[in-house]
Specification:
four-stranded antiparallel sheet, globular, about 775 residues, single chain, 12 helices
Length: about 775
């Protein structure tokens, strides 16, 4: 009877209506492990000479590695040799063939027009004019400039040496050879050996900084003694001692406390600087000076609530502090972009602020008085690339400067510290630009730029942005012959119907006419960055996943990126679990309406870390929309994630409580009663565990058991909540893996994406029959 019913069901409802074959073979063909050798170099890394702006670089192609020389002043760009031709030149010199001819080291002696080359135990000299190669003796080649010198513990006049032993500070008088112990209260987790929580004796160089022109030095000491810790055990190393490390979480009562000390070598005394103002504040030290000696000492202290800070200057003579300026930024400061530079011997201060709602640069004098606005407009001035103090110009990346474009592409800009001219964009192409300045005088720079749908370009530009040399281009012939295609840019609206969201779409390279494909959203919600492909990346995992038989998309969500305006990047404040979910669902719905080949009845979602928590939250929040999810190493409970993440981006409440205190008077012995203001902090972030009962789709949880970044307990506690809610799900634990999966486990993760979505979006359960992970190669399509 059952067989008869099955036959009738199959006749009325053909299997093809419910299942589609997963094309694992094509996915494997375009997986990153097969594409790596099809693409060589995609950018130029210039190596300059000791002076000037000429440089050499190596560039890998599918044929081998080529070496080039470029001189933007003389407008020269020429190929020097490849490994084969270099081998032939070496054979003529030595009379023998070397097993390999890839150089170990090269450096350019620019004023003599010579490139010195090291291979194995041999040194050679290539004359860039005559192209003649000559063997050198190793003793003639000076590599001293590559060897890092050891500074920082010897006083400027050479009279004293400061060092740390057994967590305390000591001083040696170089004339008398006498050693003096300066501190006596150092201990483990309260050590002068460094600001880390795990300091073994002699394990690292102490953070000692001498002031220029005086025999004084400063050290920062952090107190971790009351801070809680986590333990990670690597299951592949059962006899190894568990890895215990301090890990402070949102709302913790005890967090690291920071102290600043100035020591006087002449008087052998110390002074603790009164840096404290707010309970549980953070402290960032800024030194200004030439080389490794400190001319001026500043610090930034920031409230635990992350919305107020002060820039202060320290007088090393008497330890006094001057507050140069105070700034409040609600709900929190943009940690990724806020910037301070002390310029021109302390006369100028460069400061980044979002006071207008957009991140821009501002100019103060050395005493903290506001001078002028440097950049302005409805776009974001981002990371500083270079500062020319003589010309009083700054070079930085700008974002969102062209309305209607994807705002995440970085362009190089130039601005005047004194606002003598308006900001100038030096790299106008719509792409992500990566800049390397050339030489000490910095009259030229190498610009590598690309997009997900634009092949890489490498050029040399002058300081006005004019292209003076075009450099090597990537060899993509084998990639295109292989059948690879570029992803397509996409643009949708956020759930508010107003905010623009941008990203990319990957499709099967051979789409069947009339067929509808499930859609998968690859997510990372920020808020410190959005995991979008902003440069050319042929081996992106989404390429292979799409070939299984899906449309894969990746786009931003409100609250995701600090590279946009403050309203955008702080959208998730107070709602750290749910803020990106509505945008993802609405964005997918828009794409389903735009493209007839998208099947919105079969929707998948996946992500790693923050994307791991988002994908689980999404499938539980919208169980009627998302069919399947893969969540790897997700911080499913941000209350147990690190403090700065949760308290900055969700918020922490500062609690003030009046507590009665009693103190005995010395003269009468009677108690004196007073009221003390006691400050504490509270933080409570919604968790994915609270959503477990709403799961209806197919969820795969993955974690590494040795993850220090997002502790595996996040995934285990999510699993526990699902079990208690009576839900069916899949769980994989990768032994010995940390937050980033490596080697075999990286490949396993990619294949598990294919198989999980293949089963639950295409209805193809053939992967369940595999004995070996690569058995899909035996399937007949």
């Amino acid at each position: 009877m059952n067989k008869l019913m099955y036959l009738l069901w199959a006749i009325i409802f053909p299997v093809s209506a419910f299942t589609q074959k997963a094309d694992y073979k094509t996915a494997d063909k375009f997986a990153e492990w097969n594409l790596r050798e099809l693409v060589g170099s995609t950018s130029v890394n210039p190596h300059c000479g000791e002076s000037g702006c000429a440089f050499w670089y190596d560039y890998k192609t599918t044929r081998g590695t080529d070496y080039y020389y470029a001189n933007p002043v003389r407008k020269i760009h020429e190929k020097l040799f490849d490994e084969k031709s270099l081998g032939e030149m070496i054979q003529k010199q030595l009379g023998i063939s070397l097993e390999r001819t890839r150089p170990d080291d090269l450096f350019l002696v620019e004023d003599k027009g010579i490139l010195k080359i090291s291979i194995d135990t041999f040194w050679f000299e290539l004359n860039l004019k005559t192209k003649l190669l000559k063997q050198l003796f190793a003793s003639k080649v000076k590599k001293d400039r590559y060897q890092k010198e050891w500074f920082g513990d010897v006083s400027p006049d050479g009279k004293f040496v400061a060092f740390v032993h057994n967590h305390n500070v000591y001083l040696i008088d170089c004339q008398t050879k006498d050693t003096t112990q300066l501190t006596f209260d150092g201990e483990e987790k309260y050590s002068f050996e460094g600001t880390d929580d795990k300091i073994a004796d002699g394990s690292m160089r102490p953070h000692i900084e001498w002031f220029a022109g005086m025999n004084k030095f400063y050290i920062v000491r952090s107190d971790f003694r009351k801070v809680s810790s986590l333990v990670v055990t690597n299951s592949l190393k059962p006899r190894e001692k568990p890895d215990e490390f301090v890990f402070y979480m949102p709302g913790d009562k005890y967090v690291p406390q920071h102290e600043l000390f100035i020591f006087d070598a002449e008087t052998k005394s110390s002074r603790k600087i009164a840096v404290d103002k707010w309970k549980d504040q953070t402290l960032k030290i800024i030194k200004d000076g030439d080389g490794n000696k400190c001319e001026r000492l500043y610090f930034i202290r920031k409230k635990r609530t992350c919305d107020e800070l002060e820039l202060c200057k320290v007088n090393p003579e008497d330890g006094s502090i001057k507050v140069l300026f105070n700034e409040v930024c609600k709900p929190y400061f943009n940690n990724e972009l806020y910037h301070l530079s002390i310029l021109n011997d302390g006369k100028d201060i460069l400061w980044h602020s979002e006071r207008t709602g957009f991140g821009h640069y501002y100019h103060y004098d050395g005493e903290g008085n506001f001078k002028n606005v440097i950049t302005e407009g409805e776009w974001v001035a981002g990371e500083i690339v270079s500062i020319d103090e003589k010309k009083r110009e700054i070079y930085f990346y700008g974002y969102g400067q062209v309305q209607g474009e994807n705002p995440y592409y970085a362009r190089l800009n130039k601005a005047s510290l004194d606002a003598k001219f308006k900001t100038r964009c030096l790299t106008p192409e719509m792409a992500t630009h990566s800049i390397s300045f050339l030489g000490k005088d910095r009259k030229y720079f190498v610009d590598n730029y690309s997009r997900g749908d634009l092949e890489p370009v490498s050029v040399v530009r002058d300081m006005n942005g004019k292209i003076v040399l075009r450099l090597a281009s990537p060899d993509l012939s084998k990639l295109y012959e292989y059948g690879w295609q570029k992803p397509e840019p996409i643009h949708v609206k956020a759930a508010d119907g107003v905010t623009d969201l941008y990203g990319f779409m990957w499709k099967p390279f051979h789409m069947e006419p009339g067929r509808k494909y499930p859609i998968i959203s690859h997510v990372y919600p920020g808020p410190t960055s959005e995991d979008m492909m902003l440069t050319f990346h042929p081996s992106a995992p989404n390429t292979a996943l799409a070939q299984v038989g899906f449309v894969v998309v990746n786009f931003g969500h409100r609250g995701g990126s600090p590279l946009r305006d403050a309203q955008y990047h702080t959208y998730g404040y107070g709602n750290l679990r749910d803020y990106p979910l509505a945008d993802d669902k609405y964005g997918l719905e828009q794409l389903g309406a735009q493209y007839s080949f998208i099947d919105l009845s079969k929707v998948g979602i996946f992500g790693h870390s923050g994307g791991g928590f988002m994908s689980t939250a999404a499938i539980c929040t919208y169980p009627d929309f998302y069919t399947a999810a893969v969540s790897s190493s997700g911080n499913h409970d941000s209350n147990t994630f690190n403090l700065w993440w949760g308290e900055t981006h969700h918020g922490v409440k500062e609690i003030h409580k009046q507590v009665e205190r009693k103190v005995k008077k010395r003269d009468s012995g009677q108690d004196s009663v007073y009221m003390e203001d006691v400050v504490s902090f509270q933080s409570k972030i919604p968790t994915n565990m609270e959503l477990a009962r709403r799961l209806e789709g197919h969820l795969l949880l993955i974690t590494g058991d040795a993850d220090r970044t997002v502790n595996a307990s996040n995934t285990m506690r999510m699993a526990d909540a699902l079990v208690k809610a009576g839900k069916k799900f899949d769980l994989w634990v990768y032994p010995g893996q940390k937050h980033g999966y490596m080697s075999y486990y990286r490949d396993l993760y990619i294949r598990q994406l294919w198989f999980h979505f293949g089963k639950h979006l295409l209805g193809d359960y053939s992967s369940e029959k595999f004995v070996n992970m690569k058995d899909y190669k035996k399937l007949e399509l």
